[in-house]
C-alpha cells in the first residue's frame, strides 16, 4: 500500500522527508533480495512437502498393493486403475457424486443467487439483515451434527419428516428414507442443500452489495423490470462469484465424506457410496490402500479439471466496471 | 457449502493416511517377533499408552479408574488412554497401524482381526507369561486365553467374554400371551402374536451392517457344520458351497420381514434400536451379553422385566444347535513398545480379580475373563445366567465380520443389507461372498 501511495500521490509518509527514500529509489539491495527469497523459499518448501509431495506420493501408492500389517508391498502398475473400471461401486459412487454436484449447483448456486438478489432487493436494511440471518443459521451447524440431526428427522414413524407427511395426509409417502437404496443418497443430498444453501446466499449477497446502486437506478429509469435487472446487471457483475461458487460446489461435491459416513456409512448395499467413502472403505476397512489411493487420484483429477475449466470460463467471460 | 470444507479435510486426511502407509509400513514387520520375558525387570517409570474399545460414556470410567489406581501404585508411571467406540476402533486401529503408531496396549477381537497383528509381527508373543502353566495364565479362563492362539502361541489378554442373545421384555410377552420360543419357527409365531397385540416384535437397526451379520452368524452355526465354517473362514480353502448358507439367509430374511421393520432397518442404527427396546417400545432386541446392563440402565425396561434366550435354532437345523455366537475380547501388547514389561504389568493389573469384579458388575456388565473375576452377588442376574449358557455351549461361533478377511466381511455386510432391502436373493448374496473370497486368496 505504501508503494501505491508513492506512485499515485507521492504524499508525505515520514516526518521531515518527502518522496521515496534512497533505498526505495535504488530498489532493494542484494541482502534484502536474499532475505525476501529466504521467506519465499520457506513457504515453497512447506507447500512442496505438505501439498505436492502427498499428491505425487498418492499416485505412487496407487501403483502398489500393500499390506499395512506386514508392510509388504508389491508393484502392480496400473492394475488398481483397471480394477476401478470394473468396480460397480465406483460407478455408483461416480453417479452419486455427479448427482450431488448437479443438485448442489441448482440449489447452492442458481437458487442461492436468485434468493440473494431478492433479499438485497428489499428496501429496508433490517429486513435484509433478518433474511440473511434466517438463511445462514443452518450453515453455522457442523455438517456432522446436521447429519445426525437429519438422521433422526428421516427416521420412519418417529421422524419429523414422516410426521409432517402424515399431518398433510401423505402417509403413503412415508418410508425409510435412509434405509432404502432408492432414496438414501437423495436424502443425504437434501440435507446438504439445507446446510449449505444459506452460506452461498450470504456470499452472493456480499457480491451483489458491491454493485453500484446507480446502475440499478439507471435501469429502472430505462424501464427495466426486476428480472431484466437481475439478468442484465446482477448476473454479469457477479459472474466471478458465480464461477467461484460453481467450482467450490462441484469440487466439494466430489470430496463429500462426512455427511454420508454419519447418515448411512455408504449403505444400504453401497447405494449411497461416494468416492470419498469408498476410498475410506477400501483403505481403512478392507486394508487395500493401493486401491484407495487410486480412488483418491480419480477424485484429484476430477476436481482439478473442474477447477481449471471454471477458471478458464470465468476469465473469458469476466466483466469489469 | 460450509460443510464441504469439512468434507475436504476428511478426504485430505485419507490422502495423507495413504501417504503414511507408503512412508511408514516399511519399518514394520522386519524384526523378529517379540516374545515376553517372564523374568524381565519392570521399570516403573514412563508412559503406557492404551487403545481401548470402552469409548462409550457408560464404559469409559472403567479404564480411567484402573489407570488412576495403577498410577497411584506407581507414581512415576503415566497411563495414556485412547478410548474408542465399537465402530470407531476399527478405523482408528488401522490408521495407527498404517502410521506405525500403535500404542503399547491395544484392543483386539479374535479371528482374522487378531491374526493380522500376529502376521505383521506387531503383537508380543505372550505364551511365556500367559500360558496355562504360568501364574497369570492360571488366573484367566483357559478357553478365553486360547481364543487368541495363533501358530500355537498366545498373543492376547482376554478381558471379558461376549456372546449374542435375544433379550426380551417379559411384560410385553405376557401382554401378547407368549412364552420364550424354543425353536426358530416358534420365534416367528411369537412375532405374529406380538404384532397382533400392536407390539413391535424385534427392534433391529442395521445401518452399520454388522448387526445383520450377527443374526446371520448364529443361523450359520445352526445350519452349517463347524468344520465347514472354519474351512471357509480361511481364504485359501474357502468355498462357501454348503447349502446351509443359503438356508440361513432365507431364515434371516424371514426373520427380518416377519419380526422387524423390514427394509427400514437398514436406515436405523444399532444404538437407536437398543434405545427403542430400553424404552419398552419393542418386545425383543438381539444383543451381546455385555449390553445387558445398558438395556436396563435407564428407560422403561426394568431389570426384573428383562429376560433373554439364545436365538432359537430351526427344527431341521443341520449344524450345531448347541453353538452360540460370541468370543472373548481382549488386548495385545505392541511388539514395538519401548517398555513391554510395564505394558504387560499394567494389563496384569487390569485383569486382576478385583478389577474383574468391578468390570462384571453394573454399570459395566462385561463378564470378566478372570477366574474369580465376578461375583453373582454384585452382578446383574441375567449376566450370570448368560455366562452359564456360554459355558454350556459346544462351540463359540466367531463374529463373521472379524473371522473373515476384510473383503469377504464387506461382502457379507453389504450383501445382507441388499437381502433385507430385497435387491438380492440369498443365492445372489452367497455368490457375492464367494467372489469376494476368491479375490482374497
Topology, element by element:
The complex is a heterodimer of chains A (321) and B (441).
Chain A: H1 2-8, H2 22-26, H3 30-61, E1 64-66, E2 73-75, H4 79-86, H5 88-120, H6 125-136, H7 143-153, H8 160-167, H9 184-209, H10 213-221, H11 226-237, H12 239-254, H13 258-263, H14 275-285, H15 289-316
Antiparallel strand pairs in A: 1-2
Chain B: H1 2-24, E1 46-52, H2 61-73, E2 77-83, H3 88-98, E3 105-108, H4 112-119, H5 127-130, H6 142-146, E4 149-150, E5 153-154, E6 157-160, E7 164-169, H7 170-176, H8 184-196, E8 200-202, H9 210-223, H10 226-233, H11 243-259, H12 270-278, E9 282-288, H13 292-295, E10 306-309, E11 324-325, E12 329-333, H14 340-350, H15 353-360, H16 381-392, E13 396-397, H17 400-403, H18 406-421, H19 426-439
Parallel strand pairs in B: 1-2, 1-3, 8-9, 11-13
Antiparallel strand pairs in B: 3-12, 4-5, 6-12, 7-9, 7-10
Helix pairs in contact in B: 7-8, 8-11, 9-11, 18-19
Describe the structure.
The complex is a heterodimer of chains A (321) and B (441). Chain A is 70% helix and 2% strand. Chain A has 321 residues and is mainly α. Chain A has a two-stranded antiparallel ribbon with strand order 1-2. In chain A, a hairpin with a 6-residue loop joins strand 1 and strand 2. The model of chain A is unreliable at 1-16 (pLDDT under 50). With 441 residues, chain B is an alpha/beta fold. The longest helix of chain B is centred in the N-terminal third of the chain and has 23 residues, at 2-24. At the A-B interface, helix 3, helix 7, helix 9, helix 12 and helix 13 of A face helix 1, helix 3, helix 4 and helix 18 of B.
Give the distance, in angstroms, between the N- and C-terminal Cα atoms of chain A: 22 Å
Low-confidence stretches of chain A: 1-16
Helix content of chain B: 40-55%
The CATH superfamily of the largest domain in chain A appears as MetI-like
Average pLDDT value of chain A?
Answer: 87
For the secondary structure, the number of strands of chain B is 13
Number of helical stretches of at least 4 residues of chain B: 19
Helical content class of chain A: 55-70%
Strand order of the largest sheet of chain B: 2-1-3-12-6
CATH class of the largest domain in chain A: Mainly Alpha
What count of domains describes the coordinates of chain A?
2
Reading the helices and strands of chain A in chain order gives: HHHEEHHHHHHHHHHHH
Amino acid at each position: 500500500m505504501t508503494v501505491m501511495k508513492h506512485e499515485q500521490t507521492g504524499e508525505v509518509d515520514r516526518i521531515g522527508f518527502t518522496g521515496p527514500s534512497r533505498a526505495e529509489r535504488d530498489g532493494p539491495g542484494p541482502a534484502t533480495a536474499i532475505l525476501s527469497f529466504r521467506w519465499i523459499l520457506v513457504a515453497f518448501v512447506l507447500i512442496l512437502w505438505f501439498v505436492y509431495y502427498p499428491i505425487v506420493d498418492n499416485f505412487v501408492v496407487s501403483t502398489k498393493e500393500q499390506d499395512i500389517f506386514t508392510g509388504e508391498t508389491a508393484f502392480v502398475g496400473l492394475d488398481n486403475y483397471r480394477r476401478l473400471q470394473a468396480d460397480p461401486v465406483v460407478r455408483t459412487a461416480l453417479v452419486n457424486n455427479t448427482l450431488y454436484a448437479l443438485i448442489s449447483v441448482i440449489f447452492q448456486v442458481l437458487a442461492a443467487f436468485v434468493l440473494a438478489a431478492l433479499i438485497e432487493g428489499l428496501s429496508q436494511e433490517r429486513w435484509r439483515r433478518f433474511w440473511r440471518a434466517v438463511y445462514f443459521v443452518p450453515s453455522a451447524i457442523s455438517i456432522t451434527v446436521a447429519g445426525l440431526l437429519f438422521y433422526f428427522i428421516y427416521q420412519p414413524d418417529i421422524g419429523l419428516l414422516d410426521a409432517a407427511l402424515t399431518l398433510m395426509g401423505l402417509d403413503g409417502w412415508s418410508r425409510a428414507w435412509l434405509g432404502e437404496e432408492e432414496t438414501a443418497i437423495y436424502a443425504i443430498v437434501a440435507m446438504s442443500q439445507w446446510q449449505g444453501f444459506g452460506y452461498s446466499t450470504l456470499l452472493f449477497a456480499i457480491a451483489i452489495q458491491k454493485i453500484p446502486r446507480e446502475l440499478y437506478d439507471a435501469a429502472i429509469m430505462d424501464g427495466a423490470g426486476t428480472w431484466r435487472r437481475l439478468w442484465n446487471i446482477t448476473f454479469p457483475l457477479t459472474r466471478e462469484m458465480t464461477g467461484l461458487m460453481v467450482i467450490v460446489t462441484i469440487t466439494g461435491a466430489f470430496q463429500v465424506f462426512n455427511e454420508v459416513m454419519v447418515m448411512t456409512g455408504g449403505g444400504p448395499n453401497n447405494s449411497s457410496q461416494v468416492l470419498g467413502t469408498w476410498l475410506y472403505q477400501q483403505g481403512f476397512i478392507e486394508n487395500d490402500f493401493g486401491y484407495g489411493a487410486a480412488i483418491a487420484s480419480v477424485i484429484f483429477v476430477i476436481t482439478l479439471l473442474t477447477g481449471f475449466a471454471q477458471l478458464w470460463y470465468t476469465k473469458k467471460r469476466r466483466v469489469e466496471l | 457449502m460450509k460443510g464441504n470444507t469439512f468434507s475436504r479435510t476428511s478426504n485430505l486426511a485419507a490422502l495423507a493416511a495413504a501417504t503414511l502407509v507408503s512412508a511408514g509400513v516399511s519399518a514394520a514387520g522386519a524384526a523378529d517377533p517379540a516374545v515376553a520375558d517372564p523374568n524381565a525387570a519392570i521399570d516403573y517409570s514412563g508412559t503406557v499408552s492404551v487403545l481401548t474399545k470402552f469409548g462409550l460414556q457408560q464404559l469409559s470410567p472403567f479404564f480411567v479408574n484402573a489407570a488412576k489406581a495403577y498410577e497411584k501404585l506407581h507414581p512415576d508411571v503415566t497411563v495414556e488412554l485412547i478410548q474408542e467406540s465399537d465402530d470407531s476402533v476399527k478405523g482408528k486401529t488401522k490408521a495407527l497401524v498404517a502410521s506405525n503408531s500403535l500404542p503399547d496396549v491395544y484392543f483386539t477381537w479374535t479371528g482374522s482381526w487378531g491374526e493380522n497383528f500376529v502376521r505383521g509381527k506387531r503383537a508380543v508373543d505372550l505364551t511365556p507369561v500367559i500360558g496355562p502353566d504360568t501364574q497369570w495364565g492360571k488366573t484367566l479362563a483357559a478357553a478365553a486365553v486360547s481364543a487368541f492362539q495363533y501358530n500355537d502361541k498366545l498373543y492376547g489378554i482376554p478381558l471379558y467374554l461376549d456372546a449374542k442373545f435375544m433379550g426380551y421384555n417379559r411384560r410385553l410377552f405376557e401382554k401378547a400371551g407368549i412364552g420364550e420360543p424354543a425353536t426358530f419357527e416358534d420365534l416367528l409365531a411369537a412375532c405374529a402374536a406380538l404384532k397382533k397385540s400392536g407390539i413391535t416384535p424385534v427392534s433391529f437397526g442395521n445401518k452399520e451392517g454388522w448387526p445383520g451379520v450377527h443374526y446371520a452368524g448364529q443361523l450359520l452355526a445352526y445350519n452349517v457344520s463347524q468344520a465347514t465354517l472354519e474351512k471357509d473362514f480361511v481364504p485359501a480353502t474357502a468355498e462357501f458351497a454348503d447349502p446351509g448358507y443359503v438356508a440361513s439367509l432365507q431364515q434371516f430374511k424371514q426373520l427380518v420381514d416377519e419380526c422387524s421393520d423390514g427394509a427400514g432397518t437398514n436406515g436405523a442404527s444399532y444404538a437407536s434400536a437398543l434405545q427403542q427396546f430400553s424404552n419398552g417400545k419393542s418386545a425383543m432386541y438381539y444383543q451381546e451379553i455385555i449390553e445387558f446392563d445398558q438395556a436396563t440402565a435407564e428407560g422403561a425396561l426394568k431389570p426384573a422385566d428383562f429376560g433373554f434366550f439364545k436365538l432359537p435354532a430351526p427344527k431341521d437345523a443341520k449344524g450345531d444347535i448347541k453353538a452360540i455366537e460370541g468370543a472373548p475380547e481382549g488386548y495385545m501388547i505392541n511388539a514395538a513398545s519401548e517398555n513391554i514389561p510395564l505394558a504387560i504389568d499394567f494389563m496384569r493389573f487390569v485383569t486382576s480379580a478385583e478389577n474383574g469384579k468391578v468390570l462384571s458388575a453394573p454399570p459395566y456388565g462385561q463378564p470378566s475373563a478372570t477366574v474369580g473375576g465376578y461375583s453373582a452377588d454384585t452382578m446383574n442376574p441375567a449376566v450370570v445366567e448368560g455366562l452359564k449358557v456360554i459355558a454350556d455351549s459346544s462351540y463359540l461361533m466367531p463374529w463373521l465380520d472379524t473371522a473373515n478377511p476384510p473383503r469377504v466381511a464387506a461382502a457379507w455386510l453389504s450383501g445382507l443389507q441388499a437381502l433385507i432391502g430385497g435387491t438380492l436373493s440369498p443365492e445372489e448374496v452367497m455368490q457375492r461372498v464367494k467372489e469376494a473370497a476368491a479375490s482374497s486368496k
